[in-house]
Amino acid sequence: MSIDKNVGKNIKRIRNERQLTQEELANKVGAIKQTISKIERGVFSPSFSLLVKICNELYTTPNELLLEDSQRLQWVAESPDQLEYSIKGLEQEMTIVEDLWAKAEKYKEDGEEKQEAKVLHEIIDHFAWENDHFREVAEYLYKKRLNDYLTKTSKELRNNKVMNLRLMEQEAFKKDGK
Description:
The protein has helices at 3-17, 22-29, 33-41, 48-58, 62-66, 69-78, 87-109, 113-127, 131-177. By secondary structure, the protein is mainly alpha-helical. The longest helix is centred in the C-terminal third of the chain and has 47 residues, at 131-177. It is rod-shaped.
């Protein structure tokens, strides 16, 4: 099998494992869907810079993309760090997300709300890659909002009742004191 076909086949495999569409990957690397499709079919060779961007988005290395199936299986078996859920993978994931959190915190401290929101969206997009995930996030945010609203309403109501009790005590004291 040719190098282009190996690279394309492995990009497709890893992209599917990461549950990304061709269009999503293309958007992340600054390409168009057709380019990703051609690369995956082995009819187009990506430039080195595009290949590096693809590797970064798929959390892989150019070496892994070059391997044939049998070589890849041997490579994974010999190197546990290459497993999809490895300590190295966790480290990479944490580095990516912590870098994004650091950017968001900096923008927040600098008062740049739009930039902060943009980075927070990147974090959410990193974890929510299907409608079901967005649905779960939306459901969580909605329930949190309801809970916050209910808590504030309860606190306000309780404070009003305490204030009314104090007013009633003052009125009673005034009547008894006269």
